[in-house]
Amino acid sequence: MLFNxxxxxxxxxxxxxxxxxxxxxISGRWGNAWLVAASLFFYAWWRAEYLAxxxxxxxxxxxxxxxxxxxxxxxxxxxxxxxGGIAFNLLxxxxxxxxxxxxxxxxxxxxxxxxxxxVILPIGISxxxxxxxxxxxxxHQRKAAEPDPVSYSLFxxxxxxxxxxxxxxxxxxxxxxxxATNKRIDWDHVARGLALVAIGLGKKVLIADPLAIxxxxxxxxxxxxxFGDAWLxxxxxxxxxxFDFSGYTDMALGMARMMNIRxxxxxxxxxxxxxxxxxxxxxHMTLTRFLRxxxxxxxxxNRRSETYTAFAIVLTFLLGGLxxxxxxxFVLWGLLNGVGLVLVRLWSRAGLRLPAIVxxxxxxxxxxxxxxxxxxxxxxxxxxxxxxLFGGRGxxxxxxxxxxxxxxxxxxxxVIAMLxxxxxxxxxxMSFGWPVQAATALLLAxxxxxxxxxxxxxxxxx
Length: 462
Description:
It is a single chain. By secondary structure, the chain is mostly helical. The protein is built from 19 helices and no strands.
């Protein structure tokens, strides 16, 4: 079930929110159980047979996490249990997401034909796997309190974040699920949450989807594209992925806010940033947090030599790239970002500075070039795009005339992306008088009226 669909917005979401507060009148535990049931129904709407996989993942991690906590409290060794729990999660993720990728590459090295497994990637597996690995590590380090089965299941399955994040941390969610004050309806939270849902839906269907038409056409072009085509396509994709993913996040935060739950922010005007470090502190912020806390710091972080720190940064982003998908384009995208972050670190430590506008232009250019690898279906397409972008086929302008709506949407998206305040901050600071209420209603109506052919959010594929 897509967030941007009639059945979700007009049926599922209103019923779930109303049911949550109705069951809370019985007890908070009933309200949490209702959300677990609704979240499992939400997941099963896609493919019911994969519900057993999700349930098995939750059960194993809950048992392993509880065992880790109890052994840690008694001072008993538990590293082997932690390693086993993490291995279970990685093997599950590895089979469904990477089995064919690894077999194809091994077969290529051996010069043989690769067998192909008929495996369908379960949606959301990357997100609920990372969420649970973090929980196990914190349980081992005695940073987690022992949850009850319902609360833990809700932590993992909570439908606003289940399919594409944000990646949640138990310390920021468990207290909210247990807080009795969150069990009563708060109309201010409902209004602000609905405004975030409207903004997120508008980002997706009114901005990201129209831009996707242009970028998809160029990346799938059967003939070599021109210099102008390539630049229009990558600029469209740069704005498409931001408004698509941040639109999903806005909707997720808004739905949770309607139920008095605060999810962590995932975006904070990343395209305004003046170096790559700042970009990654404001883009997909919960993933960056996970990579820092559970890969980079355990690797040693910046506590060793400068050379080792550079190695840790590059390896962290290589793994982050691979997490995004089983394709060498994602691996190279991660490598490119890792190397870029090392160069920014060396530049800063040398005490060098650039004028603000130059620093921003270089950062934005770099991010655009990296997005080519992220978007291209294969290395051949990426190579072709780079050739066009850098004038390898001359400097021919755009073929034909792009639709004026695409040009206008790209211009509007560029302006909005450079605003200093993100959606969540704008909504938090709003005064909800009748003009804001009317604007919210109009934006929500415009989004819903554009849902005739709903498209998946980009990160549903990860």
